[in-house]
Every structure is written in C-alpha cells, then in structure tokens.
Amino acid sequence: MAEQIEGRVSSAVDAWLRWLPRWHIGTARGRTRPCRMCLGSPVATAAGFDHDVPHAVQHALLNRMRQIVDDDVDEYTARNLPLVTRELRLAEAQEARGYRPEQGLDPEFQGLDLDPEPEPGQPFLFTLAGLAGMPADAGIVPPDPTVVGRSTGATSTTEPDVAAASFDPDDLDGWLLPPDSATPTDAPLLDDPRPAAGSEHRPGPVPRPEPEYSDEAKAALRHEITLAGDHAESVGTSLCLALVQHRPRIAEALDRLVAPQVDELLAELSRALEQPRSR
C-alpha cells in the first residue's frame, strides 16, 4: 500500500506544480472563517507549509491529498466492509429520492390539503402538490435486497469476515429485524391525502417503518466503522511520510513563484500607507 500511496502523492504534487504558475495573488479573496481542512492539518506540516504561504496555494495541494485518502478508503470499504457499503448505498438512494411531501405524515395530518388556497395575484413559486406529482424513482439506486423484502429466516449471529474480498448478501439474512408482517409489501405508503368529492375521508395506512437493526448487526456495523477509521488513519500516515520526500520541490516552487508576489504586495501596501505625523 505504501508504494501505491507514494505514486499517487508524486502524481498529485506534479499536478500541483503545473497549476502553481497560473496562480496569482490578485485572484485571492478574503475568508470569513478558517478552512477546516487546512487549519492545523498534519498534511500541511508534512508539505512544509508555514503561516506565510497563502491559503489558496495550500488548499490546492491539500485538496489533492485528501482525494487520495478518500479514494483509497472508498476502495477499501467497497472491498472489505459490506455493512458500511450497504449503509452508504441506502443513504445515497434516500438523498437522490428527495423530499416527498405526501409521505411520512402523521395520522392527524393525513387527508388535509398540502397547499393553502391561492390568493389572486400571488402565484406560488412551487407547490407541495406539484412536488408530490414529480416522479420519485428517476435515478434511484435499487434498494439493497438485504434490507427490503427479507423473510424471517434463521438469525445468524456470526460476525462477518471484514477481510473477505467479496460477500454473499444471503449471509446477512436475519441481521435486520423484519418490519411488521401485518403491513402488506405491495400496499401504497399513503393514500391520496386529498379526499374524493362526496366521500368521507378515512386515514390511509401509515408508511411502513424502516427495519430495526439487531444487536449483532449494530455491533458489527460499529466494528466496520472502526476499521474504516483505522484504515483512513493508516493511509493518512503513509501519505504524510510520502509527502515529506517532496518538500524540496515544494519549497523551491514557493520561493520562485509565490514569495515574489507576496513581497510585491507587501511593498505596495507599505507605499500606500501614510507616514506618521511628526510632533
């Protein structure tokens, strides 16, 4: 892994050195708050950056370094951590699904109009009914079969092998407690919240609750999250050690391309300041 990280770091530093001649201090802008990625970063220390280096110059290199860590952790997670991979897939699917105003309503709100009555001359920029009418499945990742549509089989309490290169979804059967069996799987989540004309409204079925995790699944998921954090820390350490080897190249580029611009800016500022009045 160390050799692979060294190659990626070298390529990222090369790309940063090609970008640096195009940077000019006049394009910098003020910041209202410290950068959470750059402030106190050990990667900045490994690169040899000090407080005199402009933030835009530091951020450009540190952002490339962070991408290396993120890519490596993503590869490790997809290869060895099936539970974390499943959670990430479901989170991405939920985020892509967007806001569905007709779902998740409490029983006391079911059947009420989603939008108020329109006022003359005051058009709505959007309506909740319009959002509810938009297609909800466009671009949605199909749900993981280990979460939806499971039958109540035998519960497996064996912790999954996180070092395996692949896994069988059937091995996770029983790790999730199935939803209430009284709720049909093909029933709609909600009836139309607007009652039909001339008919008495009856509250529709409550949306099917998400399956709850068993104690074994929670413990296994926490263990995989810990493994992912440990791997990220290991990759970050290897990255810093590899970046130290490029300190001479980074320092030479800063002295040649950045320091003259900083000196010129300070000289211009000193000329613009008024001399103190003598008494």
Features:
2 strands, 279 residues, two-stranded antiparallel sheet, mainly alpha, 46% helix, 1% strand, flat
Poorly predicted parts? 138-142, 145-193, 195-200, 203-209
The termini sit apart by: 69 Å
What is the helix tally?
7
Compressed to H and E, one letter per element, the order equals HHHHHEEHH
Number-wise, the strands total 2
Q: For the CA atoms, what is the radius of gyration?
A: 28 Å
Morphology call: flat
Oligomer description: single chain
Please report which band the strand proportion falls in: under 5%, 5-15%, 15-25%, 25-35%, 35-45% or over 45%.
under 5%
**What class do helices, strands and sheet pairing give?**
mainly alpha
Which sheet architecture does the biggest sheet show? 2 strands, antiparallel
Give the overall pLDDT as a whole number: 74
Helix % is: 40-55%
Strand order of the largest sheet: 1-2
